[in-house]
Design a protein that fits this description.
The chain is mainly α and 442 residues long. 74% of the residues lie in helices and 5% in strands. The chain is built from 18 helices and three strands. The protein has helices at 25-34, 50-59, 69-84, 89-99, 104-117, 122-127, 135-147, 150-207, 213-227, 231-246, 250-262, 267-287, 292-302, 306-320, 326-331, 339-361, 369-381, 384-441; strands at residues 3-9, 15-21, 38-45. The protein has a three-stranded antiparallel β-sheet with strand order 2-1-3, with helices on one face. A hairpin with a 5-residue loop joins strand 1 and strand 2. Helix 11 (250-262) packs across helix 12 (267-287) and helix 12 packs antiparallel against helix 18. It is elongated, with a radius of gyration of 31 Å.
Length: 442
């Protein structure tokens, strides 16, 4: 018997999409009317042919990599607008797929549309494209479908992604200037050491004068750079590979991430950024109706920090045993003494001084008492999502203030550092020149 796919409306005006098996289209319409629905569209669902599958595959292009966060944020906002306007899900996806440039997102939308046409729900279709739509995205869509408020969930999801993108842009924007200046300064200083200083050394050798200590030091540095120039990019690359290798192990990853949270100057920025992101994620999931255990698991996976993954894992286990969120959060907020973290402090900060600084800071909590108390109040009043949003907004503001303060601090420090380097080179080169001029005039 043929299968028919239909769209209908119930007595309340809600849109219904389903399939029905009947001997003819007339019988299918009669059966749907008996169910209390008003038919708006009905088509016979044909078995997909091999040729059609090939055609569908031809529409997709070869791509490498994942969908960018900016592109997915734009898609979510546009999808939210179309759903709010009352368009059917499949038509909205087709519109967005047609206007999308060839790439991973377009390929994913083609697959999602085909799955929906085959009878799958939107969340089921998106779950089959995990490289584009992660667990957070799929679970929120699933909650929106279950509650019949997909357009509201999409608005929350779009707001969440836009705020995350805005914060990321501010941090990247603040770091772009100092990184560019440092790279440019390294290039200029390397050129001076390789090309300029050796020429001055030839002049000094011709006159046979005794070189001052600063000049001799500069020449030694120049020869070191000239002979071992490959170490300038090689040392940072070797350190990066070493960090990557250590982080492949669970204990190594935890120790390095704990160092990132506790490191001088930038540690607070990293910690507050993670708290803002995770609390906003958890608040968005709770407000969307996702079960608390599932929400905590998703928050844990999206934190991208082993310390917070461990922390949310402890909270997850405690809730399964019937406890609240605040109590296990408070009990596990203080990390234990970690030897790998101590090694990174000694490696990056400077031997004994780094170890001493770590011993002074190791027992400080990664989550402040204010956050725990606000979550506790949210659980007592039944407004956990509201409290989580307030925490996220507060920490977003703190991250902005810290970013601006660090930018204001880095600029004069870089000017002083570069000025000191240039001054050292000028003084080191001019001291023997003054001696040569004095000799000649004498």
């Amino acid at each position: 018997m043929p299968t028919y796919q239909f769209e209908a409306m119930d007595a309340t005006g809600k849109e219904i999409r389903d399939i029905i098996v009947a001997e003819s289209e007339e019988e299918a319409q009669a059966t749907i009317r008996q169910m209390g629905y008003f038919v708006t569209k009905i088509t016979e669902k044909k078995a997909p042919k091999k040729a059609e599958k090939k055609t569908g595959k031809k529409r997709k292009t070869f791509t490498i990599g994942r969908v960018s966060a900016k592109q997915l944020t734009t898609f979510t906002r546009q999808f939210s607008i179309l759903q709010d306007a009352g368009l059917p899900v499949l038509r909205s996806l087709r519109i967005l797929e047609n206007q999308c440039r060839p790439g991973p997102l377009k390929n994913a939308l083609i697959d999602v549309c085909e799955e929906i046409e085959s009878g799958a729900s939107l969340s089921e279709a998106m779950a089959k494209c995990p490289k584009t739509f992660d667990r957070l995205y799929v679970n929120m869509i699933k909650a929106g479908e279950a509650g019949g408020a997909l357009e509201v969930i999409l608005q929350r999801l779009a707001d969440f992604k836009e705020k995350a993108q805005a914060l990321k842009r501010k941090i990247k924007g603040a770091l772009t200037y100092p990184v560019a200046v440092v790279c440019f300064a390294i290039a200029i200083l390397t050129f001076i050491m390789i090309r300029i200083v050796p020429e001055f050394k030839k002049i000094f050798d011709e006159f046979g004068i005794e070189l001052p200590f600063l000049t001799q030091l500069l020449i030694n540095i120049s020869y070191t750079v000239l002979n071992y120039w490959f170490l300038i990019p090689g040392i940072p690359l070797a350190v990066w590979l070493f960090v990557k290798l250590v982080c492949r192990f669970e204990a190594g990853r935890y120790g390095f991430h704990l160092f990132l949270i506790k490191m001088p100057i930038f540690g607070q920025l990293v910690e507050k950024n993670i708290i803002a992101r995770t609390t906003r994620t958890l608040g968005t999931l709770v407000a969307s109706g996702v079960p608390i255990l599932e929400a905590l698991q998703i928050t844990k996976e999206t934190s991208n920090n082993a310390v917070f993954e461990h922390l949310y894992g402890k909270v997850y286990d405690a809730i399964r045993e019937g406890e609240t969120i605040a109590q296990p959060l408070k009990e596990n907020a203080r990390p234990k003494l970690n030897l790998i973290t101590a090694f990174w402090w000694a490696f990056f900060v400077g031997g004994p001084i780094g170890l001493l600084l770590y011993l002074l800071k190791w027992n400080q909590p990664v989550i402040e008492d204010m956050v725990i108390n606000m979550i506790d109040v949210g659980e007592e009043t039944g407004e956990l999502d509201t409290m989580l949003y307030k925490i996220a907004d507060t920490y977003d503001e703190d991250v902005e203030v810290l970013t601006e303060a660090l930018t204001d601090l880095i600029e004069p420090l870089m000017i002083i550092l570069l000025g000191g380097m240039v001054g050292f080179i000028v003084i080191a080169l001019f001291l023997p020149l003054i001696a040569i001029i004095s000799e000649l005039s004498g």
